[in-house]
């Protein structure tokens, strides 16, 4: 096929000018908002593990292509580089559309307003422009075809390897880059409770049970749309009693009124909120969670070492207490450094303990036999604490504010939800001031899944949250909020 000389000279020039405009515009847009550009790459399932390399590499290659296209002697080489970049960009979008459930756009300006399909067509159009310019600039069509096939093959192999490597690093060997998929959590309802002293005592398939730290016998029952159904008062067996740190837990149809400093456990039915039995308690406890009808998992202070331990307590006709001294690992003092949050996952029959001051959670079976020690995605593996003793040497205290890593946890289905207090790479500080971040982990293997934000209310951040099915209930200042989770919790 003979191509007129004028067309052979003008076409590469016109195409080069189009690429120059595109690359200059894209490069300038990225540079003007480089922090956001890096953050978007950091959330990509293909590129997140290589954010720094890719963010600077793309800018360098786009600039290099612009320079090569601007010089007549290097224009053909510039067209090959432009073709390579557009093929890579097109393959990236193809993988996003077909193999990834989410990813933010990593381009800027007006291109960001395109849908992913439109963006793919736009990129393919420029691939075609580059191919036409290369074909008309020479008569060696076979050589050009071979080079194009090699470029497509090399780009395809590169994107597949990047995708596989990034997924492995992000989920199993995370370098502390969070992923924030779009539209995973939707606010459904909000209610101003008038006080910030409410706590969630439990959630079932239809109701949310609230207790109040200033009046622990008072119970407020809401439905999942946050409509108040009724208010009740727990009736104890012996009338008024002096409690030190009472807590109410609801595992419908039962409720438990517990105080580990006395120690005592009352049990009754949510039907009338009257205590029916007083359980036989085997010892003092710091934290406690009902697992079965008359079984509890708890955190206690071991008398011999005066350090925290996990234990199983059975009440009823055959009471018993078993302590596990191996699960909680001492780093500093065995008290503050092992402090954390205790959960029981009823769907998996698993006990979960998440440390406050280090990036670790423990998953054990119903008999307190260790399944594995999982890691949260931050890098704080050792508790940052300054602990001192009183003059008597019997009481330990913190001599400086500790570095809080994990603030709150919840669990449902195959997942653990952790409210983190550590900012990840490429996350804007402004987002942290406006939101609380929750990271999700897969309990079947301990891997990180993704993260989402819960927006602060009137300057108040998230203080507590629970998950039941597709419902996430949060307490923020005076407000209780209900969110719909738009992802699967079971597999």
Helix/strand layout:
Layout: H1 5-32, H2 34-42, H3 51-70, H4 75-99, H5 116-136, H6 141-172, E1 185-192, E2 198-203, E3 207-212, E4 215-223, E5 228-233, E6 247-251, E7 254-259, E8 264-269, E9 274-278, E10 287-292, E11 295-302, E12 307-314, E13 320-324, E14 340-345, E15 350-355, E16 360-365, E17 370-375, E18 387-389, E19 396-398, E20 406-412, E21 415-420, H7 429-434, E22 435-442, E23 447-455, E24 462-468, E25 471-476, E26 479-485
Helix pairs in contact: 1-3, 1-4, 1-5, 2-3, 3-4, 4-5, 4-6
Number of helices: 7
CATH architecture of the largest domain: 6 Propeller
Uncertain runs are: 105-110
Instruction: Report the span from N to C terminus.
Output: 58 Å
- Summed up, the domain count is 2
Give a count of the beta strands, DSSP E runs of length 2 or more.
26
- Helix content bin: 25-40%
Full CATH superfamily name of the largest domain: TolB, C-terminal domain
The neighbouring-strand order within the major sheet is 1-26-25-24
Major β-sheet annotation: 4 strands, antiparallel
Q: Find the structural class using helix and strand composition.
A: alpha+beta
Shape: elongated
Report the sheet-strand fraction: 25-35%
């Amino acid at each position: 096929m003979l191509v007129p000389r004028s067309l052979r000279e003008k076409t590469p020039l016109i195409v080069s000018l189009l690429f120059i405009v595109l690359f200059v515009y894209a490069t300038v847009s990225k540079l003007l908002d480089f922090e956001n550009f890096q953050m978007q790459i950091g959330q990509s399932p293909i590129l997140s593990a290589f954010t720094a390399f890719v963010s600077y590499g793309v800018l360098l290659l786009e600039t290099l292509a612009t320079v090569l296209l601007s010089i007549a002697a290097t224009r053909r080489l510039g067209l090959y580089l432009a073709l390579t970049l557009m093929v890579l960009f097109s393959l990236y979008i193809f993988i996003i559309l077909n193999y990834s459930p989410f990813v933010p756009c990593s381009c800027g300006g007006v291109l960001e307003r395109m849908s992913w399909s439109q963006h793919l067509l736009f990129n393919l159009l420029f691939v075609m422009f580059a191919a036409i310019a290369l074909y008309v600039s020479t008569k060696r069509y076979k050589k050009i075809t071979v080079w194009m096939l090699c470029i497509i093959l090399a780009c395809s192999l590169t994107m597949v390897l990047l995708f596989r490597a990034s997924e492995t690093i992000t989920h199993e060997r995370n370098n502390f880059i969070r992923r924030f998929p779009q539209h995973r959590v939707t606010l459904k309802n909000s209610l101003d409770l008038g006080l910030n002293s409410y706590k969630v005592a439990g959630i079932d398939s239809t109701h949310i049970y609230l207790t109040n730290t200033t009046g622990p016998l008072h119970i407020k029952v809401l439905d999942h749309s946050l409509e108040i159904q009724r208010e009740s008062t727990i009736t104890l067996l012996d009338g008024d009693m002096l409690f030190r740190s009472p807590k109410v837990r609801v595992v419908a149809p039962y409720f438990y009124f517990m105080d580990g400093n006395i120690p005592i456990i009352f049990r009754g039915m949510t039907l009338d909120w009257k205590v029916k039995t007083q359980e036989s308690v085997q010892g003092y406890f710091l934290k406690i969670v009902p697992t079965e009808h008359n079984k509890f998992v708890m955190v206690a202070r071991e008398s011999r070492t005066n350090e925290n331990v996990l234990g199983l307590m059975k009440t009823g006709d055959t009471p018993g207490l078993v302590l596990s001294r191996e699960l909680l690992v001492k780093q500093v003092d065995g008290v503050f450094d092992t402090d954390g949050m205790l959960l029981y996952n009823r769907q998996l029959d698993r006990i979960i303990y998440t440390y406050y001051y280090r990036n670790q959670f423990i998953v054990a079976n119903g008999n307190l036999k260790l399944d594995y020690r999982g890691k949260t995605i931050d890098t704080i593996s050792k508790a940052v604490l300054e602990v001192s003793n009183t003059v008597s040497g019997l009481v330990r205290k913190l001599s400086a504010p500790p570095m809080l890593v994990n603030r709150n946890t919840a669990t449902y289905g195959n997942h653990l939800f952790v409210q983190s207090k550590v900012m990840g790479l490429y996350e804007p500080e402004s987002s942290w001031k406006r939101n609380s971040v929750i990271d999700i982990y897969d309990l079947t293997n301990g891997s990180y899944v993704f993260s989402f934000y819960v927006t602060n209310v009137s300057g108040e951040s998230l203080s507590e949250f629970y998950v039941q099915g597709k419902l996430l209930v949060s307490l923020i200042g005076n407000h209780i909020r209900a969110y719909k989770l738009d992802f699967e919790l079971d597999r």
